[in-house]
Amino acid sequence: MLRETGLGDGVLSERRVFHVLSTTEDQTGGPRGFVEKRTPRFSGSPADA
Fold it and tell me: To which H or E segment does residue 12 belong?
């Protein structure tokens, strides 16, 4: 599938996926864990759940 996608379509697809992933609770899990000096807790849940 990816090999059949042109550059423009691939970049658009990546942008959409990045946006979806950046709205999850996990997006802050790594940095928060680092600041709190603990292992991050990843839930896989959306931020509004």
Answer: helix 7-21
E strand or H helix that includes residue 35:
helix 26-35
Q: What is the mean pLDDT of residues 3-15?
A: 88
Q: Provide the whole-model pTM.
A: 0.54
Type of residue numbered 39 = T
DSSP state of 46: B
For 24, list phi and psi in degrees, rounded to 5: -100, 160
Q: Measure CA of the first residue to CA of the last residue in the chain; give whole Å.
A: 31
Q: Would you report the helix, strand and coil content of the chain in percent, each value rounded to 5?
A: 55, 5, 40
